[in-house]
From TrEMBL:
Protein name (database record): UspA domain-containing protein
UniProt cross-references to InterPro entries, sorted A to Z: Rossmann-like_a/b/a_fold (IPR014729), Universal_stress_UspA (IPR006015), UspA (IPR006016)
All copies of domain UspA, residue ranges: 6-124
Gene3D superfamilies the UniProt entry points to: HUPs
Cross-referenced Pfam families: Usp
CDD domains, alphabetized: USP_At3g01520-like
Amino acid sequence: MGRVDVIAVDGSPQAHYAFNWYLDNLYREGDTVVIVHVAEYNIHIGLLLTDEYMHILRNKHIPAHLLVLQGDKPGEEIRKAAVKENASLIILGTRGLGKMKRTLIGSVSEYVLHHSTCPVTVVRHPE
């Protein structure tokens, strides 16, 4: 039996890169992928946004399912989803915010790193 790996996506190039990086570097046959998107306002937009990821996983015959959640604290929602799914690993991209911006607006990846109960891989997009 494989792992359950949560991949958090938000429509950004960084999330897309992290998704592809996971498939190329960490995915192992038998793993199940859970795509998690946290929609602040409109869940329907989240469903459209995640369609591409699910299509890729289906074409590669990778067991997967989707969680589109609503909330204004994406880091907390991702953490809770990982607990609910009994995740072995969380994958997410990072925008590489500077120290000042990160302090002012917070960082989803930083929150997940500090509050998750499972390992977290933060993938930085090469600029």
